[in-house]
Amino acid sequence: MVRAAHEQGKKVHVYIGETRPLLQGARLTTWELMKDKIPVTLITDSMIGHLMGLGKIDKVFVGADRITANGDFANKIGTYTIAVLANVHNIPFYTVAPISTIDISLSDGSKIPIEERPSKEIVEFGGVKVAPEGVKVESPAFDVTPNRLVTAIVTDRGVLKPPFKDAIAKIFSRARAR
């Protein structure tokens, strides 16, 4: 989606969170955007609210690993925080995913199982211990963003708008009719 906007000559500048603990944003997403000559700035995950407050961010687009029948969705940990910040700053918040990501067998986000990652990913950085031995760790890989914080769901079959339960049901009824 970002590539298409850039190719159409739209003014695009992407702020990418480093994406702790495995740094996918820093290592992969920034590399891809730079390769395509799309303006990108790497930030720490905790800087997003500050940049929103400064007016540097006017839209938020995130992916989704699983979307439920009511439009709640799971994505990389920290997505829910970004959605809350976008809501506070009145910034449109979109999730982008193929229709195959929608699981209509799940009524809402509370039904999505959340993977717990190894504590080593939090207490070590680059193989070096950064936390005291024996500290208790919680390391969920994903969080769930409630549909009330989502402006729209952008799919390969169109843009779904609230009420998401109706929009999702409609798109799946059309798919079954084919």
Briefly summarize what is shown:
By secondary structure, the protein is α/β, with parallel strands linked by helices.
For the sheet with most strands, the description reads: 4 strands, mixed
Overall residue-averaged pLDDT value: 95
In terms of structural class, how would the helical and strand content be classed? alpha/beta
Uncertain residue ranges: none
What is Rg?
A: 18 Å
Strand content: 15-25%
Indicate the percent of residues in helices: 25-40%
The counted number of beta strands is 12
SSE ordering: HEHEHEEEHEEHEEEEEH
Separate helix tally? 6
* Ends apart, CA distance between termini: 26 Å
Strand order of the largest sheet: 3-6-11-12
Q: What general outline do the C-alpha atoms trace?
A: globular
Q: Can you offer a commentary on this structure?
A:
With 178 residues, the protein is α/β, with parallel strands linked by helices. 29% of the residues lie in helices and 22% in strands. The chain has six helices and twelve strands. The strands form four sheets. It has a four-stranded mixed beta sheet. A hairpin with a 4-residue loop joins strand 4 and strand 5. The longest helix is centred in the last third of the chain and has 14 residues, at 164-177. The two termini are 26 Å apart. The mean pLDDT is 95.
